[in-house]
Amino acid sequence: LTARTLLYLTPAVVLAACLAMVVLIVATKVARTRRERRTAALVAPYRIDLLAVSAGEDDDGSHRARLVGADGPSREALDGTMTTLLGKVRGAPADHLAEVLHAHGAIDRAMEELEHRSSVRRARAAHLLGLCHIHRALSGLAAALGDPTPEVRASAAHALGLIGNPAVARRVLDAVGTSRPIPAGAAADALEGMGTGISEALLDALHDPSPTVRTVAAQVSGEGSFTRSTPRLRELLTHDPDLTVREAVAGALAHLGRAEDVEVLARHTGNEQPTPLRRTCVTALGELGEPSAAPHLVALLDDTDPRLAELAATALLCLGALGREALGDRQGSAAETARVLAQLQRGERSPA
Amino acid sequence: VLTVADGPLVLVADDDADIRDLVEFKLAQAGYTVKAVGDGLSAWEAFEAARPELVVLDVMMPGLSGIDVLRKIRESDAAEVPVLLLSAKSRDSDVDTGFAVGATDYVVKPFSPRELMHRVNAILARAR
Predict the structure, then answer these.
(1) Which residues in chain B have their CB less than 8 angstroms from residue A92's CB?
(2) What is the pLDDT of residue A278?
(3) Using CA atoms, how far apart are residues A260 and A228, in angstroms rounded to an integer?
(4) What is the predicted ipTM?
(5) What is the pLDDT of residues A302-332, one digit of tens each?
(6) Helix A275-288 and helix A306-318: axis angle, to 10°?
(7) Could you tell me the pTM of the whole model?
(8) Cα dist from A277 to A237, A243, B93, whole Å
(9) A105, A298, A318, B8: least CB-packed within 10 angstroms?
């Protein structure tokens, strides 16, 4: 091919590729619309039953019986619609939808499909088992936390959170520190769904060699107010080799710390500490809300890091009347910025 | 969609047809007259035209969001109409925003239809 031929060919190839893309998009949309219309047509005769069950208006069980009696393509379409509805309602209606899905054999199929070769089917199966709170799926879902496909791992974590059994909390925590990790946020959400029974697992995870595991354990300890973690959190704030872990620990102490933690946090606001940690500790001192933090924060109002000075002023305002008094009519950009922010938050000043 | 009954008019706005139909069904079963729409702009137009006694608003809708519609309602001459936000946004900051703009109540999805009805009944009883 000569350079001249290439010059003529390139726009033609680009144009052909664009046209192919447009055709593909249109074809996909048409196929999806057809599929949705077909599903809607199959579900239509049962729409009132679906609404009655989902709305909790099926005291005599007659609507459930009609849904259970559906067969053929209608049953398959109904199962998809009921799975969607299950994610939108809770309480007795959700239990009743799960009963119908169980009667249709959808739960047993999902148990099998956790090991299906299609990752889409594995992720959907995990999702359904979570929505229906299937406790016998725990081990299969815990195994799916190590699935090669990220979407399946995330779906399994979400499902375990919905089931809410703390027996698998350590498995979820371990899964954030592996070579095929689940996202830290998904793990934290799942752990929060497991209630107070995860305190032992959290404490154990705060000793884990993986910094990601320790970070998640610290965050969840703080957000869930797991006070058993407090002594270990204090140790980690000082000694952990990973800065992210120390920042997460400072945030956690802000939630569950006590008066004695003012000194612990204040020690880490010194200018020999890394800047992100100093800033997090200053914010934590405000969130902790202990009046004894005021002198430490006042001392930071003239810090060479202007952002830290602003955070110290804002933290003082979090301490209430005593903090406001300590800030007084002190001049300087940090104090003034904090006052303006506080006025904006209270609606006493408009952004304009 | 307008479901006619004898009870007070409730405007329901949600872009999710399942939720919209479900809430409409539940309210109609309880004897309310329901006007259901699928986006924020239609919600505002329906509010202006029908002046309902209660509005149930989804937060995330195409066009105007539920928060935008709520803000417009609170700036209108029918600012006292109670508005219940029904949203999948469950963070504290989302709930704070809803109440700060003037929501009467906030229900997080997934929701219990029974609990929603208790809240609707209580809001309307207080408003009368």
Answers:
(1) 112, 114
(2) 97
(3) 15
(4) 0.88
(5) 889 989 998 998 898 888 888 888 777 676 6
(6) 10
(7) 0.82
(8) 9, 7, 24
(9) A105
Nearest-CB residue to B114 (from A84, A88, A91): A91
Partners of residue B36 on adjacent β-strands: B12
Cβ atoms of B72 and B40 closer than 8 Å: no
Query: How many helical (H) and strand (E) elements, i.e. helices and strands, does chain B have?
Result: 5, 6
**Exposed/middle/buried for residue A9 (C-beta within 10 Å: 0-12, 13-18, 19+):** exposed
Distance, C-alpha B17 to centroid of its chain: 14
Which residues in chain B are closer than 8 Å to A54, comparing Cβ atoms? Answer: 18, 22, 113
The CA distance from A104 to B5, in Å, is: 36
Peptide bond before residue B110 is cis, with ω within 30 degrees of 0: yes
The label of the residue with tokens 């299609």 reads A118
Q: Which helix (H) or strand (E) holds A64?
A: helix A62-69
Put simply, the chain B residues between 28 and 67 with a CB less than 8 A from any chain A CB are: 29
Phi then psi for residue A249, to 5 deg, are -65, -45
State the residue for tokens 């609507």: A63
User: Block means of pLDDT (10 residues each) for chain A, length 352 residues?
Assistant: 77 90 96 92 95 95 96 93 94 96 97 97 97 96 97 97 97 95 94 95 97 97 94 96 97 93 95 95 94 92 89 89 78 70 63 57
Rg (CA), chain B: 13
User: Cα A236 to the chain's mean position, in Å?
Assistant: 24
Residue A92: HSE in the Cβ half-sphere, 13 Å Cα cutoff: 12
Contact B113/A85, CB-based, under 8 Å?
Answer: no
Question: Mean pLDDT, 10 residues at a time, over chain B (128 residues)?
Answer: 78 95 94 95 96 96 94 95 94 91 95 96 91
**How many helices (H) and strands (E) are present in chain A, helices listed first?**
21, 0
Contact residues for A29 (Cβ-Cβ < 8 A; gap 6+): none
